[in-house]
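Our platform keeps sequence and structure together, in a single record for each protein. Such a record has a labelled line for the sequence and another for the backbone structure tokens. The tokens are whole numbers drawn from a learned vocabulary of local backbone shapes. The remainder of this section carries one protein's record, kept here as part of the documentation:
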Amino acid sequence: MIKFGIRKTLEEMYVYTFLFLANLFPDMSVCSVIRALLVRPIASVGSDTRIRKNLYVNSFRKLSIGRNCFINRGVQFDCSGRVSVGDNCSIGFNVLVTTSTHLEKDRVGEDGRTFIGEDVIIGNGVWIGANSTILPGTEIADHCIIAAGAVVKGKLDPSGVYAGVPARRIRDTPGIAEKRI
């Protein structure tokens, strides 16, 4: 039998209410700012961050978004582990950032769980293209560009363009990502 505390239940109610209300606003620039303001009481969101419609987050407490970021439509943050997004980042539409992963059969957790959350860290000045997937345990260094549709896992070196499945460094970014802001 699963027990839920009153705090967890109230938090879930706030999350679902936020998601419902935030998606009622039309998809305009002004509403992107309003959505970011609504997220601030339950997540760490920096100033001048804009969030478009249809955001999904399963645990706002484990989400941290820096200053001057842009989160496009349909982005999903699976926050079983922590997700940290640096300053001046742009995340394209339908990006999935997932932190939950399963353990092998012989490595079951202390409480009998077969899944764990591995943190995802996204550095400053990162661009993530549409329909990309960021897998558990990934660390994206500063000023990286992730091509649309890429599947990213592991530690990425700074100032590079990464593309493919799995994502590989295809070239350097000599100042491209740094000049965005």
